[in-house]
Amino acid sequence: MEIILDKYLKENAYPGRGIIIGRSKDGSKAVTAYFIMGRSVNSRNRIFVTEGEGIRTEAFDPSKLQDPSLIIYAPVRVLDNRTIVTNGDQTDTIYEGMSKGETFEQSLRCREFEPDAPNYTPRISGILETGEGSFSYALSILKSDHGDPSQCVRYTFAYEKPLAGEGHFIHTYKGDGNPLPSFEGEPEQVEIPDDIDEFTELLWSSLNEDNKVSLFVRTIDLADGKTETRIVNKNR
What we know:
The protein is mostly beta strands.
């Protein structure tokens, strides 16, 4: 069942980090979005900056940076006709694995959820493949087994023929809490509009004002591969 995305986000003060992938309503573009949120000073002290064809996180105020291990990484990288989007340094793991001929799923076999007890934040990842008018995508989540760090549960969801105007949304947490409860179930089905600015505004305005940090949105024209990108940072 399709959720109403802005309503869903407004009712969840802390979905954490989220990935959306889908196809524009007119069918002409692949669309992806990635957002980060934070509760601590360290997590909130970040911005997105461009790096090559992708993006990376960096400290807004370097003097306030504490532990960079789980907050400084490249969320988006591009490998030929594949765009990789993740919530951690597994972006590089996927990039390197697929460069050597591994599949998206195979490349993640060496990774698990984040070592941030007691939350054990899930690693969420997405891959978009475009070319010659075709488009497919997949989403992955690596999570603890109901908070038990002795087990890593792995789910991959593949969408081979995305419908126009339809996408899927996966995020790290069901909501706020202590410890933070991990996302459960299949990625949520969402509507994807045509206009990148409309989509960017819908997402940014729907995220919790206190907790939102940065947002990335990109469209890829399926006919010619041209991209449009929007980046919004709360810290300016």
